[in-house]
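Incident log entry.

Two folding requests arrived from the same account within the same minute. Monitoring flagged them as a possible duplicate submission, but the sequences differ. Recording both here for audit purposes.

Request one:
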Amino acid sequence: MQALAAAITLDASAGDITLASGANLNVEGYAKTYQDIVEYAPAGAVTLAATGGTVTIAKGATVDFAGAADAGNAGSLSITATGATPATLAGTLLGSAAPTFTGGSLLIESEGAIDLDSVTDIVTAAGITNQVLLTSQNGDLTLSAGKTLKAFDVELVADGGQITINGVINASGTANAVNAANAMMRPVALRTVRGSRRINIPSKAAMTNPIWVIGTSTVAWPIATPRSKKMVAPTRIIAAVALYLSVLRGGRISRSAK
């Protein structure tokens, strides 16, 4: 299915969405020549929403929301799976953009657990550099040591579990040249919602931009105030700027010991 620089939406009101091997959803950007002028249309958006079911992109299937080869921004892939079975992303995602243009975005909202390590690998391979927004209604979000999740805008939400960062979250603003100039302005949002869940950021984890922890959970050092609190950490841990932790709905924040 092809809709260059446009949108493709598959919405299952009851049941699953499966892209089998050989399936191809293509909203990539394209170039159009008018006499001696080349105009570039940015890539579009793919939306896969399964109400009460799951979304499967099988091995051999492709979802292409990359920008045109020479210019133009990439698009986005949005996945919603409200069934108990987590979404499966075994196929090929293409979300890169030419240098100086904005890379793609990946948004996943899943009732089941999300394998953050696997998504990180997919984001890297696909060339997704703009947004990574992940919401897990159940289960934990864990980034293992040695893994680097890099995008201009990163938001991780665990409504029914905990968030543990042992690897690197890099929101240093490389989505495009304009964003790079504003790198210091980009926070990483980590949020848990239900109960007294935990957000764990071990001292050995590397962070390359401010991190905002939002919700009712713990990550307790020092005790948080309703306002954001600047925390000075050893420079070998924080790669760029200071670590910020904020609680907006009460609760407390902590940084785990070494």
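Request two (distinct sequence, not a duplicate):
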Amino acid sequence: MGTVPKQKIISDNENITNRANLRAEPKATDGNLRQSTGELPLNISGSPALDSAAASSDNVSYYYGEKMSVIRLISMLFIVWAHCLLGWENVRFVQPGFQFLQALILETGKLGTISFFVISGYFLSDRLYKYNVPGYLKHRFFTLILPWIIFLFLYVFIELFEVYPIKLIFSWNIGYTIHLSMVLARSFIFYSAYWFLPMSLLSIVVLIICRNYVKKLWFIALLIVMTLFYCVNLYYKWVPANHTKSVMGYTFFIWLGVAVKNNEIKIRDYLARISWNMIIPLLFVLLCIACYEAMGLMKRDSGDPFSTIRFSNIIVSILLFFALLKTDRLNWLNFLNPRTYVFGIYLTHCIVFSQLRIIINHLVPNQIDINHIGISLLLQLAFFLIVFATTYFIVYLIKHSPVKAIVGI
């Protein structure tokens, strides 16, 4: 073997050192440069750190996707509770204790609506830049819009037979029948659960149109101001105070869902640091404040004292959403397959309630007895469970039938 020149050894050592430095130090033209210019680093295949971050992000997205199904089911339970109350909203109690109990019963039914808007925004995030407005509506037509139309008109058809004589419905006066149908449809859209989907779609359309501004502080502030306007309006009634007519008040919650989706890892880490010893007492206090605000609005003869868009209800509903996002103790509810059945429950529960209400009115004419308030509460709870169980069973049957598409998703 020949002798290797000293200069050659030095040169090879320098090359080895340079290659080691290149491996140890990231290039200025790679992720660091993007970070210095305010851009997000790309996931480059073969980079363990970036691949690990991407895998972590995917895990969180899957985990939160499953969580959203649970939150969706719990929110629907609150909504069904709100729509199957046996006249608690029409009773006027004198004793403060009964007044608070009434407020608590009614407020419980308002805890799920905002979560539904946030969940809608969460799943909108991946589609926000994918579709224009016509494209999105087309994408959602057969899974959301058409089922909504079918069940709305089914509800109208059923109620026509109960409210008006058959001979009038099938008389030659078609114009009269159409008029009655439109009156009922309008009533159901603004005064039953069917208001949610149009309001949600309208809010989504606003975000799609303004998607280039969703990260701008002025746009976020504008959404907050519009929501706060409806909160203040409950006290002054500049415009109709009914929460189902608060047209621009819900866009902020759709935006909030988009923000949750875009910051999943940060939110997960932040929620992990917050103690339940702080969350649970805070939820209790905020729930009490929401009840007392509603009681105050009742005394002011507000148009909608238990409006979803109400200062205290917004705060307690958002806190409850994040509390449900934090806990793992309710994951067992996934056995009910909420992703498959919740939208069908939304579509059908008002119809089920209206029919079961006829039965209970015959069986128990006096459903709220101040002298036996405990029995009245048990009756209300039993009726709620019957409505929910019956609705779930009907949706289950539809989902396993040839017409399963009519319950959408």
